[in-house]
């Protein structure tokens, strides 16, 4: 049986070792609650959302990829960097497609369509990836 922290850690490791997605962001990968409060970088946050125990464990993991808002007209009005969030959405989709059985003891599928949401308090937007998982046991990172 895996705990929420162990599952979150497994997904963290999958992201932190992904050469494509991590190389295209300006920040780092963090577990939920560890991202620096004042970060203006493109950081990835891994959040354990839900889980059930059984012979095959199932649940949902959320991955948020932050992108700072931009001031395209130099008038002090910050807006979503739509081009960048679209690029991050595509990169996230490619990462999800790369999560095959030969890389992990989990089976993943998208819980919902990858989309972008506003975080107005910090003047950033973030790409939301919700993954439904099934854990089959074995030697993934503990």
Account of the 3D structure:
Helix content is 25%, strand content 32%. The chain is of the alpha+beta class and 142 residues long. Strands 1, 2, 3, 4, 5 and 6 form a six-stranded mixed beta sheet that branches. It has helices spanning 4-16, 19-23, 82-98; strands at 29-31, 44-52, 57-68, 106-110, 115-119, 124-135. It is elongated. The termini are close together. The model has no long low-confidence stretch (mean pLDDT 93). The protein is built from three helices and six strands.
Offer a quick outline of the entry.
The chain is of the alpha+beta class and 142 residues long. Helix content is 25%, strand content 32%.
**Average pLDDT score:** 93
Helix amount, in percent?
10-25%
Low-confidence stretches: none
Number of helices: 3
Encode the helix/strand succession as letters.
HHEEEHEEE
End-to-end separation: 11 Å
User: Taking Cα atoms only, what radius of gyration do you get, to the nearest Å?
Assistant: 16 Å
Structural class: alpha+beta
Strand content: 25-35%
Report the sheet with the most strands, covering strand number, pairing sense and barrel closure: 6 strands, mixed
Number of strands: 6
The backbone outline, from C-alpha atoms, is: elongated
């Amino acid at each position: 049986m895996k705990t929420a922290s162990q599952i979150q850690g497994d997904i963290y490791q999958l992201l932190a070792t992904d050469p494509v997605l991590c190389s295209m962001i300006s920040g780092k990968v963090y577990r939920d609650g560890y991202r620096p409060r004042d970060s203006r970088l493109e950081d990835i946050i891994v959040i354990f959302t839900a889980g059930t125990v059984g012979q095959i464990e199932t649940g949902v993991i959320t991955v948020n990829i932050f992108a700072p808002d931009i001031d395209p007209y130099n008038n002090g009005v910050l807006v979503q960097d739509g081009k960048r969030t679209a690029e991050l959405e595509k990169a996230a989709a490619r990462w999800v497609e790369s999560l095959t059985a030969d890389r992990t003891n989990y089976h993943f599928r998208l819980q919902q369509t990858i989309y972008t949401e506003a975080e107005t308090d910090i003047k950033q937007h973030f790409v939301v990836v919700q993954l439904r998982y099934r854990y089959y046991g074995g030697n993934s990172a503990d």
